Fold:
Amino acid sequence: MKYWLIAFSFISILAQADGIFSAQLPDLQNKSQSFSQWKGKAIIMNYWATWCSPCREEIPEFIALQKKYAGKVQFVGIAIDDVKDVSAFSKQYGINYPILIGDANAMELMRKEGNQLGGLPFTAIYNAKGERIAIELGRIKKEKLEGYLKELSK
Structure:
């Protein structure tokens, strides 16, 4: 428990100092992934869970859009869920973008991104300069997201 409190405090401090790009979360193989690896790219950062019905509805659209805008825009999923459930879900749906696993750390990052309610799904959109240009609480419609993607991929 003490380790998690220290890690949570550390991530909170980093997120305040350099925004989201200084945070780290584990991937499906429990390997720590730094958000800084996506600096310089347009990013669609989506917080979700396997038990969240609107999340399940938008993920197939994200998969298709990641394929369509590959090399121009990077989707990143942050699952607030059990790694076993997320891994099975990712395989079943064929998710083609990085999936990170979060708990209290991800909830804190999500709040810092503007989601004070902690609702899911939640999407934050960044341009290649690392500037957050939009946030969306709830299911984001494909047409709306694609409007952002067309601008970001120019």
